[in-house]
Amino acid sequence: MIIKRLFDILLSLTLIILLLPLMLIIAVAIELEVPGAPIYVSERVGQNWKRFKFYKFRSMRPQADKELGLLSNRNSYVDVYVDPEIIYLPSKLYDVKLYSDNYKVCEFDYLQETAKRMNSCFIKVDNDPRITKLGKFLRKTSLDELPQLFNILKGDMSFVGNRPLSVAEAELLTSNKLAQRFDCPAGLTGLWQIQKNKDNMTPEMRRNFDIEYAQNQSLLLDIKIILSTIIQVVKRNNE
């Protein structure tokens, strides 16, 4: 949508110019608290499965990704993303064989391994010890998201859309229904983020909101989401 893209360019450029001094101060503060690159860069998947470099202010200790495995037992998403039929599989599947060009495997083992892979891709740790003191403030105020203005200006993202996913997560959403969430731009904010119960949503609920937005995206809906997001951020900062 041409109007949406023009809006993204004009607003992101304006905000970058206005907020550049603040972003420089945040970058210096991050490095002073815990030395390391102030910008966290990761590969994400956006509209039409396009991969891009995703920017955020670093809110964790450097090399925090390498510590993730040590926190797997505190993952609040364990078994949430995996269908119970995959976790509790009937033993008769041991008799069903799946064949490939190079190997064969019983269906039971294949699905169990799929379940483990899915759970390892979705990790949310409450009171994550890797987050710095400044990082907690940046997350609460959403200031850690400011570098994504450059993603928006480049065209990787839009102000409104579906949150960009990690490559591992995107690779699991390939069915015809789930893949619809990639029919719209990756967004700084989106439909599920403005829901009152967003903090208690299951991943399935979030995916359904992503699909709903992709199917019903419009300029009017984008305006509603932007206004609701601003109201929520203001309320959260006043708590």
Walk me through this protein's architecture:
The chain has eight helices and seven strands. With 239 residues, the protein is an alpha+beta fold. The protein has two domains: 2-69 and 123-238, no CATH class; 82-121, no CATH class. The strands form three sheets. It has a three-stranded antiparallel beta sheet. It has a two-stranded antiparallel ribbon with strand order 3-4. A hairpin with a 5-residue loop joins strand 1 and strand 2 (51-57). Helix 1 (2-33) runs antiparallel to helix 5 (148-154). The longest helix has 32 residues, at 2-33. The chain starts with a helix and ends with a helix. The model is unreliable at 77-90 and 115-122 (pLDDT under 50).
User: If strands are numbered along the chain, what order do they take across the biggest sheet?
Assistant: 2-1-6
Mean pLDDT comes to 80
Quick one: how many beta strands? Answer: 7
Tally of discrete structural domains: 2
Helical run tally: 8
- H/E topology pattern: HEEHEEHHHEEHEHH
Give the helix level as a range of percent: 40-55%
Low-pLDDT parts are 77-90, 115-122
> What form results from the Cα inertia axes?
globular
The protein's oligomeric status is single chain
Instruction: Give the termini separation.
Output: 37 Å
Radius of gyration: 20 Å
Percent strand: 5-15%
Write the layout of secondary structure elements.
Layout: H1 2-33, E1 39-45, E2 51-57, H2 84-87, E3 97-99, E4 104-106, H3 107-121, H4 133-141, H5 148-154, E5 157-160, E6 165-166, H6 167-170, E7 186-189, H7 203-216, H8 219-238
Parallel strand pairs: 5-7
Antiparallel strand pairs: 1-2, 1-6, 3-4
Helix pairs in contact: 1-5
